[in-house]
Design goal:
By secondary structure, this protein is of the alpha/beta class. It has one domain: 3-Layer(aba) Sandwich (Cytosolic phospholipase A2 catalytic domain). Helix content is 46%, strand content 14%. It is built from 12 helices and 8 strands. Strands 1, 2, 3, 4, 5, 6, 7 and 8 form an 8-stranded mixed beta sheet that branches. Helix 1 runs parallel beside helix 2, helix 1 packs across helix 12 and helix 3 packs antiparallel against helix 12. The model has no long low-confidence stretch (mean pLDDT 96).
């Protein structure tokens, strides 16, 4: 039996996930592997490094810092979330990832990104905290139009949510058979088609595969939600989700708003803790 944890993205909605996983760590819930998409990768790495509270701490502290996330950064660097500050200065200097704990942990940590040439998902297993891992996390979190393409080993990547928003099937393909899925949208949410399609097509003309993937993303996402709900109804997975639409936009500079969403995640996880313990302790039927 392999216990997996699947973390959807959603930019600042990911603070809900941060609250959930902090409560899981506080309750000593161990998993064999995590796969994170976008914010799920950014914040999920703290599970492998066992750093309770790190996500909300630096998010609140640097919420109003222009180098953290701003149009000033976008104009100057091509990235809304500043590459140097978010992916290097914070994790390596200001609020360090616990490199030793991360690398000694037997827990697998997977990152999802989208190949800009094919529009298909690429999955990277991260075993160390180094520049390459940070580039994969940055790629997974790099939203088209407001981010530059991230070049890694001669290939270009962008946001993993474009191609595989909730990678449950990927983890199942690796043999993970006791999976908890954390989403950042309520149960009744369904993604609408891309807005301003003609504008987006022009904006993404140099990476047409990304445009095509985004054009059909709602179909992929909604099919994944339907699959998850079927598996949930059959008792094969456990889903942790907000009860209502989270009171935060994809981008936020409001520490109180961030803390509220984080605490919603904590409340849901605390309420579901008996279910979480029971689900991971039960043996899967043959």
């Amino acid at each position: 039996m392999k216990k997996g944890l699947i973390l959807e993205g959603g930019a600042m909605r990911g603070l809900f996930t941060a609250g959930v996983i902090d409560v899981m760590m506080e309750n000593n819930i161990d998993v064999d592997g995590i796969v994170g998409v976008s914010a799920g990768a950014c914040f999920g790495c703290n599970y492998k490094s066992r750093q309770i509270g790190r996500t909300i701490r630096y998010s609140v502290k640097y919420a109003k810092e222009p180098l953290y996330c701003s149009y000033r950064s976008l104009i100057a660097t091509g990235n809304l979330f500043n590459k140097g500050f978010c992916y290097y200065k914070i994790p390596f200097k200001l609020d360090k990832v616990d490199k030793k704990t991360f690398e000694e942990s037997p827990m697998e940590f997977w990152i999802v990104a989208t190949d800009v040439k094919t529009g298909k998902a690429v999955y990277k297993k991260a075993e160390k905290i180094n520049k390459e891992t940070m580039e994969w996390i940055r790629a997974s979190s790099s939203m088209p139009v407001v981010s530059n393409v991230v070049e890694i080993n001669g290939h270009g990547y962008l946001d993993g949510g474009i191609s595989d928003s909730i990678p449950l099937k990927f983890f199942e393909s690796l043999g993970y058979d006791k999976n908890i899925v954390i989403t950042t949208q309520p149960e009744d949410y369904r993604k609408p088609p891309i807005s301003k399609e003609k504008v987006m097509k022009v904006a993404l003309k140099k990476i047409p595969a990304i445009f095509e993937a985004m054009k059909h993303r709602h179909e992929m996402y909604n099919a994944q939600v339907d699959y998850i709900m079927r598996k949930e109804a059959q008792g094969e997975i456990l889903v942790i989700r907000p009860k209502n639409t989270l009171p935060i936009d994809r981008i936020s500079h409001d520490p109180d708003e961030m803390t509220l969403v984080y605490n919603i995640g904590r409340e849901v996880a605390t309420e579901m803790m008996p279910q979480i313990r029971k689900f991971y302790s039960e043996k899967k039927e043959a």
